[in-house]
Amino acid sequence: MESVKKLINGVESVVPDALRGLAAAHPGLRVDVENQIVFRASGPRPGKVGLVSGGGSGHEPLHAGFVGYGMLDAACPGEVFTSPVPDQMIEATSAVNGGAGVLHIVKNYTGDVLNFQMAAELSAEEGVEVASVLVDDDVAVRDSLYTAGRRGTGATVFVEKIAGAAAENGAPLAEVARVAGEVNARSRSFGVALSACTTPAAGKPTFALSEAEVELGIGIHGEPGRTRSTMRPAGELVRLAMDAIHEDLPVTGDTLVMLNGMGGTPLIELYVAFADVAAYLAEKGATVARSLVGNYVTSLEMQGFSVTVCRLTDELTRLWDAPVETPALRWGR
Amino acid sequence: MESVKKLINGVESVVPDALRGLAAAHPGLRVDVENQIVFRASGPRPGKVGLVSGGGSGHEPLHAGFVGYGMLDAACPGEVFTSPVPDQMIEATSAVNGGAGVLHIVKNYTGDVLNFQMAAELSAEEGVEVASVLVDDDVAVRDSLYTAGRRGTGATVFVEKIAGAAAENGAPLAEVARVAGEVNARSRSFGVALSACTTPAAGKPTFALSEAEVELGIGIHGEPGRTRSTMRPAGELVRLAMDAIHEDLPVTGDTLVMLNGMGGTPLIELYVAFADVAAYLAEKGATVARSLVGNYVTSLEMQGFSVTVCRLTDELTRLWDAPVETPALRWGR
Questions:
Q1: Whole-Å CA distances, A236 to A20, A230, A233, A284, B265
Q2: Partner residue facing B273 (CB), from A7, A272, A274
Q3: DhaK domain spans which residues (chains A, B) (predicted)?
Q4: Degrees (nearest 5) of the Cα angle B94, B157, B308?
Q5: Could B5 and A211 be called an inter-chain contact, meaning their C-beta atoms sit closer than 8 Å?
C-alpha cells in the first residue's frame, strides 16, 4: 500500500470491491460482481428497447451510476481506464433484451468500439437485434492515444438520459437509435486539466503538469489535449473551452449544459466556472435551458473541468425532463 | 494567479462568483449574491416552519445545495471556512418566515454558534419565533480548534433533510425542532483524511501530511483529529472509523449511512469504502436501510472520507423518504 495513497484494498480488487459497494448502496441495482455487469434489479421490461453501455472504470458515476428507470438497463465496467470485454457486453445484451432489441451506447475509444462491435455481431447471431450509437463529442483533438476520430466524453450522459427516456416511452429500436445519434450530433465537449490523476495499477500520475501549467483539451484518461497553457483565471479557461466548442458547432438557442468536474475539483469552483459558461452563452445569445454541475464523467481524482453543450430541440428537452431514477441522476419519480 | 492553482477568478470573488453560478444552474433558487443568501425561488409558504442553515463556504453542496422543497428554505454561506455573519441569518430568517416560526440548523463551530445565537435573539426581537438545533455528531474529538464540544459534520445533511420533510408536512416549530434534535442524537460521524486542502486565501495546504500518513478524525476545515496513522487499506481505515462510532453509540437496527467524499476522492474509491462499511454493519447485526455515497459535506479538494450513521426509527425513515427537490438531493418529485 505504500506506493499508492488510495482508498482501496488492493490494486487488483478495486473494481469488484467498488461493485460490492454499489450493490450495498443501491437496492435498485442487481450487480453481477464476478462478471462485472450492473443491471436494473427489475430486469428487462417486455417490449422496451434495452440500453447497454460500458467502458473503463475510473469515470464514475459513468456508466453504472446511470443504470435505472429512464436511463440504462445495464452497464459493463472494465478495469480502470481499460475497455470491458465482449463477453460482458454479450451477457448484458442478452439479459436486458425485452424482445424489442438493444441499443449499445459506445464512447469512441478504439478498445470500446472493437469490443462492442464484436459483441453486437455475436449478439445478433444469437438472435438479438442490436443497434449502436457512437459518442464522439470531444472537439479537442481529431485522433488521440486511445481513439481514431473524436473522443467520446460528456455527451454520453446526455445520450444515455435522452435515449433512455425514449426507450422508456416505448419507442422502437430504430427510433431510440435515431434520437441517441441526434443528441450526439448536437453535442460538443472540451476539457481542461489542472492536475493529472493516478491509476491504482500505475501508482504514479498519468502525466506531468507543473504548478504553472494546464492541459487544454485533456482526455478522460489523461491523454494529451491540444496544448499546454499557463494557468489562467477560470473565466479565461472557460472561454478557451467554449470558443473551441463554438467554432465547431455554434452555440445557439436553448442549450443543455454540463459543467463536469473530473473527480478532484471542489464543487464551489465548478460553480465559479459555470457562472462563466452561462455568461459566455448569454453573450452569444444562447440560453441555459437545462444544466448539470458536478462530477458525472470523472478521471479518478483529476482536477479541472469539462464543459458539454447540447443544442436542444423541443423533443430532446421533453425527453431530458422525463422521469429518471438512477444512483447519479434522479428526478420526477 | 500563480500561487493558487484553482478554478477561480480571484481570491476575493470566489463566493459571489460561485453564487452566480449556482443561480445560473438552478432556477428553483433565488440567490442574493450581494448579501450571500440562497433562498427557494418560491418564497415562504404560509403556515410552514422555515428552515435556515449556513456556515463557511468550501463544504459544497452543504448548505446551499440543500435549499429547496422538502429541505432548507434558505442558506447563508460565509467566506471559505468562515462563519456567515448575523446580518445574513437575520435577513434569511425574516424572509423565510411564513408565520409559523423558523428553525436554525447550526453546526457546532464557535463562530457559527455565536452568530446564529445573536441572529436568533435579534429575530425574536423582531417578532419571529426561532428555535435552534445544534448538530454535533463528530465523535473524533471533544474540543478542537474551532469548537467547544463535538464538531458538527455529516449529520447536518440528515437533520436538514428530515426536519425539512417534517416542516413540509406542516409540523409546528416545536415538533420540527424535536425531530431535528432526535436525528442529531441518533447520528455519529468520523472522518479520515488522505490529503489536506488549500483555501484560496491561504494558497497553501491547511496542514501537512506525508505520503505515508493519514489523519484519523479529521475536521472539515482540516483541523486536527485524534491521531496520525500510517496509510492502510480502505477496510482498515473504515474499521477504525466505524469502531469510533460504534464505541460511542452502538450501531444497531436499521441505519441511514452516508459515505461522504471530501471533495477530492474518486467516487470508485468511495464505493470501495462503502462495501467495507456495509460489511462492518452486517457484522454488528445492523442493516443499511438507506444510504448516500458521494460528496455531500466537502472540504474543498481534500481526499479521504467521512462516514455518518443514523439509527433510524419508522418516523425518521418516513421523513427521509419524503419528496425532496434541491440541487444536491432530489427524489419523489
A1: 41, 11, 5, 16, 27
A2: A7
A3: 10-331
A4: 150
A5: yes
Cell of A11: 490494486
Across the interface, of B1, B17, B327, the residue whose CB is closest to A272 is B17
Indicate if B129 and B201 belong to the same structural domain.
Answer: no
Residue B254 reports pLDDT greater than 90: yes
| Predicted ipTM > 0.90 | yes
A213 and A115 in one domain? no
How many domains, chain A?
2
For residues B73 and B83, what is the distance between their CA atoms, to the nearest angstrom?
A: 19
| Enclosing domain of residue A70 | 14-186
B8 shares contact with chain A (CB less than 8 Å): yes
Q: Which residues of A175-190 are buried (b: 16+ CB within 10 A; e: fewer)?
A: ebbbbbbbbbebbbbb
B26 is catalytic: no
Give the pairing type, strands B74-80 and B102-107: unpaired
Distance CA A308, CA A240 (A): 13
User: Which three-class secondary structure state does DSSP give residue B38?
Assistant: strand
B232 shares its domain with B159: no
pLDDT digits (tens, 9 = 90+) for B73-92: 999 999 999 999 999 999 99
- Residue of A223, A239, A317, A329 whose CA lies nearest to A280: A239
Q: How far apart are CA B295 and CA A27, in angstroms?
A: 20
- Residue B69 in any domain: the answer is yes
B-chain residue closest to A213, CA distance: B5
Per-residue pLDDT tens over the stretch A107-128: 999 999 999 999 999 999 999 9
Domain assignment present for residue B124? The answer is: yes
| Residues B214 and B306 placed together within one structural domain of the fold | yes
Asked if residue A201 belongs to a domain, the reply is yes
pLDDT on residue B3: 56
B59, B63, B104, B246: the active-site residue: B59
Q: Is the domain of B38 the same as that of B129?
A: yes
CB B72 within 8 A of CB B164: yes
Q: Any idea what the CATH number is for the domain that residue B218 is in?
A: 3.30.1180.20
